[in-house]
Amino acid sequence: MNETAELRQVTVAGDEGSVRLDRVLAARCPELSRSRLKALILDGRVAIAGGAVRDPAYHTTSGETITIELPPPVAPEPLGEEIALDIVYEDADIIVLDKPRGLVVHPAAGHETGTLVNALIAHCGASLSGIGGVRRPGIVHRLDKDTTGLMVVAKNDRAHQSLSAQFADHGRTGELRRGYMAFVWGVPSRVRGTIEAPIDRHPYAREKMAVREGGREAITHWEVQETFTGRSGGEVVSLIACQLETGRTHQIRVHLAHLGHPLLGDDVYGPHFKTKVSQLRPAAKAALQDLGRQALHAYLLVLEHPSTGEVMEWTSPLPGDMQALKAALEAAE
Predict the structure, then answer these.
(1) Residue pLDDT, tens place only, 170-184
(2) Active-site residues: which are they?
């Protein structure tokens, strides 16, 4: 528990047994909104018997003691921080940048500072004020913390509206395209294909997404670019190019795992493939260990400029850690 947080304890009464956790807390803590309580649960700040319970629908048992951690208040608006940005294009309307690994896009519980938003506020000053909401000024899409590559940010309301519309359309009628490179375990049975599988929250692990019936539409197009052999001479890894037709959380990671080919280094969606590391040659095994993240890079971004309508395209080479992995996979030992 956070030492600066306020801790509250609630004991489940006899008539509250088998009642959903969120409903028990809503009844016993009326000063906290339901949305606030749900956020606390999902963030792991509600515990029973010393263990975090992240499912709002968890059914309580009479006599259980629920501990709630209320983090201290934070500033309602992110503060600017001088964080270096790799800007590949900038004008009065947009910024296109190459995001490094480890950079969280916008502030959230556990990441109130050191985010891309903090860096953008320092870089752009007051021009970002009010665009896209207090916590996400200028942000129209995001990349996972450890996914690298190209992102675009709006610098004014007009640009934000235009980019938001383009990302909502996902290139179905417009020019928007987003391309990713991913190293995956194994080799698909076909050279190219399309994954159409709905995505929603995982039913048990709430920090994960999953392919689920009734989830939101999700479409990923993929094509094998290169394959790599392992210690025995058989093909063990593929480099796959993906293009998104929708933009769901963790979409490529979830879809490729669903295809049976999870990303190298993805401990969330490919933990059962760790045994395959033994099939790699020593140099590739070391390069994967050095990577220490999912092997995913946003290499292509195409969009219509919000003011001029010009179709603009940017590409980004694989970052150093993924280049090192590729070189090690290609090397004959």
Answers:
(1) 888 889 999 999 999
(2) 144
